[in-house]
Amino acid sequence: MDNMIVWQTYHDDRQIMKYGLHEEENIRLFKGNDTTVKGESINHLNAFYSEITTLYWVWKNHVYSKIVGFCHYRRKFSYFLELNDNECEVLDIVRLSSNLLQHYKTWHNYLDYCDLVDVVNQKYGKGNKYSEHLIYNNVFVPYCCFIMHYEHFEKLCEFLFDLLFSLDKKLGLNMEADNYANKAKKDFPYGADVVYQQRAFSFLAERLISSYIVTNMKPICVKGINI
């Protein structure tokens, strides 16, 4: 498909062989923790932001393609749709048995979620469509995997990183890896998988991306390939 790039994130060179990663006509690989990459990046925070570092690099360095998408080393799109302007191809759309807040509370530190909603309310006003979705809705677009027109991707990133970096400031993390790691250790001192839970900002980003897509775009689900 012409004028489309889908960025597939990985973070360990061994994953290239293990998962058979390779670039194709429309696929580009991006090592999300490569701090030597040219251009502006937040790759030093990959352990906490996961694949969101790829979104940031493509957006901030304006790596343009008419259609742009993102997927993971373990998940990729089985095929590509011809997308109209406001359509967004996603791997899954889930209707949870509880609302998004309760679902997050079950698996992660829900105080981070509450702080995020506060940040959203400060930006858009109490009762805005995003915070209402984050609190009360149960429709969830998981995985941070999507394909859309570049102009919509730019708007998504302006929305996403403004809120994430405002939350970083609110929590006093200052975009420093040690601060993120220490916060996770403090939040989960007993028995939790801290390496997993320290990815809180990627989990929160997943909810923000889902909220943006559901409230502003027409998501179209295609089942992806789990490698």
Query: Helix/strand/pairing class, anyone?
Result: alpha/beta
Q: What does the radius of gyration come to?
A: 17 Å
The percentage helix is 40-55%
Low-confidence stretches: none
In the residues, how many domains can be counted? 1
Whole-number average pLDDT? Answer: 96
The helix tally amounts to 10
The portion of residues forming beta strands comes to: 15-25%
Secondary structure: number of strands? 10
Strand line-up of the largest beta sheet: 2-1-3-8-5-9
Q: Separation of termini? A: 23 Å
Secondary-structure element series = EHEHHEEEEHHHEEHHHHEE
Could you explain the architecture of this structure?
By secondary structure, the protein is an alpha/beta fold. The chain has one domain (4-226). Helices cover 45% and strands 17% of the residues. The chain is built from ten helices and ten strands. It has helices at residues 14-18, 46-49, 52-60, 100-107, 110-124, 129-136, 150-170, 177-187, 194-197, 200-216, and strands at 4-10, 27-31, 67-72, 75-76, 87-90, 94-95, 139-140, 146-149, 218-221, 225-226. The strands form three sheets. A six-stranded mixed sheet has the order 2-1-3-8-5-9. Strands 4-10 form a two-stranded antiparallel sheet. It has a two-stranded antiparallel ribbon with strand order 6-7. Helix 1 (14-18) links the parallel strand 1 and strand 2 (27-31). Helix 4 runs antiparallel to helix 5, helix 6 crosses helix 10 and helix 7 (150-170) crosses helix 10 (200-216). The longest helix has 21 residues, at 150-170. It is globular, with a radius of gyration of 17 Å. The two termini are 23 Å apart.
